[in-house]
Amino acid sequence: MNLIRWEPLREISSMRRALDRFMDDSSVPAVWQSDELRTLVPPVDIVERENDVVVKAVVPGVSEDDLNIEVIGDTLTIKGESKETREDKKENYFYREWHYGTFLRSMTLPAGLKTDKVNAELENGMLTLTIPKAETAKPKAIKVKAKTAAKKVKEAGK
Prior knowledge:
CATH class of the domain at 38-85 and 94-138: Mainly Beta
Low-confidence stretches: 31-38
Number of helices: 2
Order of helices and strands: HEEEEEEEH
Structural class: alpha+beta
CATH architecture of the domain at 38-85 and 94-138: Sandwich
Radius of gyration: 27 Å
C-alpha cells in the first residue's frame, strides 16, 4: 500500500485552472439565472469627464417607473424590474433568452461628486446618469515658470 502525500497548493491550483477554463468557456451565459430567482445584471460604463461623471447602464424593457436609483455616500445603486408583458405563459419555448425579473447593481463612484445633483435620463433602454463634480474635485491647471540663466546667476550671487 502506497501513501500519497497531500499537497493542498496543488489541489487549489488545479481547481483554479478548472474554474478559469469554465469562465473562459463561451457557452457560459452572460446572465446567470436559476429556477428560483432570475437575476439580471445590466452592463455599466462609467466615464469621468472634466466637469462630471457619466454612468451608462443598459436596461432594455425597463420603464422609468420600474427604476430606483440611490446614491449613499460614494455608492451608486441601480434597482429595477423587467416585467413580462405576455399573457400566454403556457407556450413551449424551444429557446428562450429574454429574462424577466428584478435586478440590482451597486458600484463605487469617484470621490468629490455632487451626488444631490444627479441627472437621470432613460432613452431606448439606455439609462444615463450625469453627476457633476464638486469644485474641489475639478482639475486645476498649474502654470510652470521656467527660470532663465540670468535669474540663476543673480540668485547664485546672493
